[in-house]
Each structure stands twice: as structure tokens, then as C-alpha cells.
Amino acid sequence: MTFDRRAFLSLALASPPSAQIRPEEGRKLAYRALDALGGEKYRRMHHRVEQGRAYSFYQGQMSGLTRATITTYYDMAPDPAPESFVGLHERQALGKKQDIVYIYTPQTVHEITYRGARLQTEETLGRWRESLLHNVLYILHSRLDEPGLVFDAMGSDIYENQPVNKLEIADRAGRAVLVVLDAGTGLPMRQSWTRRDPRSGLPIEEVTVFAKYRDIGGGVLWPYVIRRERNGDRIFEMFSDQVQANPEVDGSLFKIPSGTPILPPAK
Questions:
Q1: For the chain: N or C, fewer Cβ within 10 A?
Q2: Which residues on adjacent β-strands are paired with residue 164?
Q3: What is d(CA 164, CA 159) in angstroms, rounded to the nearest whole number?
């Protein structure tokens, strides 16, 4: 997969003069994207396991490569759905022996190594939560019924030589994410949102690119390639070689193993 910077600049900076905000059309685009992912079968997905190669980057250059297994569990949203609902648990097992583990829950983040388990900072938890709440794949799964969620059709464009539709999703808390949808399939191809650096106050653009969707079981589609960028620099890329929807997963995976030493919290 190649990255067309000219297409990126065109998409990010240019909007056709005739583009209008269209909430009704926006909701149709959102539900078309959901249908492309599997519709209600996608929304009923309760577990997912992704296995593959994960690359990290610093200043655009590769700085790390590891095997990764990402196991996800979804809490079903209550009825009525609350605002800013975080109902996802994620376990990242890294390394050849999968012995470096990060467990993300709505309340905490822990790093587990041979030394023990260490609670991570509130800042780390906050970044993960905000990334999740802006993620279009999570929004379509768990937040569609949330009160105050607005879908605005933002016109059409060309991205990586393909016709696309642009959709902005915003919530009552002031979050907004711009999603690029394949005009043919309706699948999400790219998303972008902006946050403020907590120290400098400067804007930081977070971009995620989704590619190579495949059926991961029962008619549910998921991207086998996920790339993240920050202010135009690639920071992470995952190439999955196997993804499963709703496999048998032991709930203890999302808990600190019994007998694990508890280390001082991260600072």
C-alpha cells in the first residue's frame, strides 16, 4: 500500500465550494458503512483476535518490529445508550514469546512483564480512551445509538485515485472525526481528527488508514492493514495474517494473572 501525499493534501485541505453539510445524507453514509462491515452481525461481534506483525516508527523511520496478538472484548452498550460510551477491553501481547502485555480497560491500563504488573498513567488511559471514541470502527459498533451523535455528509473527493465520500461524525462532548468512505463499497478507508498537546497547546492531527478488508467470520469484515500517523508522520502499522471474530476467549486474559507482583505505578 502506497501513500499518495498529493491526494492527502487535496483531501485534508480542499473542499469543493459546492459542498454542503447534509445530516440526513450523512446518516445514510454511516449506515451504508455499517452494512459494508456486516450490519447487525458486525454490531453483535463480542470478541476479536488479531495476529500479525506490528511496526513502530519514529520521525518517519521504522524503530521497531514485533509479533503482536490483539484480543478485544466488547461490552454491550446499555439501553438507553450513554454519551461517550467506552465499552471495550483490549489485550496486546507483544514479542516473539508474547510476554510483554498491555491490558486496556475503560478504567485502567496495565503493563505486564516478567517483573510484574505496573499501572500506567491517567494520561496514557486518557489518550487510549480518546483514540477509541474517535475510531469510526468503534463508533459504528458501539456508539450509533448514542444521543447527540451527528453525521454530516461533507461531499465527495478523490483519494488514492479512488472516488470517495467524506463523512464527519461529531458528539455532544465536542469530538469530531472526518471519515473517508470508499464510494463503491462504503467501507472506511481513512479517518482524521485533531487534539491539543496537553503541554504546548499545539494541534496534533491523528490519522488512521484502513486497508485490505476481509471476512473474519460470519460475514463480518475487518481491515488486515491498519496504519496510524501523527502530524503527517507514520507512527504505527499492523499487518495481520489472521483475524477471527467471536472466537472462544478466556475472560482471564483481560485480568492481571494471580500471583503477579504489583509494581509501583508509572509516573
A1: C
A2: 157, 182
A3: 6
Tell me the per-residue pLDDT of 74-112, one tens digit each, with 9 for 90 and over: 998 888 889 999 999 999 999 999 999 999 999 999 999
Domain count within the chain:
1
- We report the CATH number of the domain holding residue 185 as 2.50.20.10
In a domain, 184, yes or no: yes
Measured CA distances, 51 to 30, 68, 70, 136, 201 (Å): 28, 6, 7, 21, 36
Report CA dihedral (238, 244, 245, 249) to the nearest 10 degrees.
Answer: -100
Whether 6 maps to a domain, the answer reads no
In a domain, 7, yes or no: no
Identify how many contiguous H helices and E strands the chain contains and give both numbers. 5, 13
Q: What is the pTM of this model?
A: 0.90
Decide if 239 is inside a domain: yes
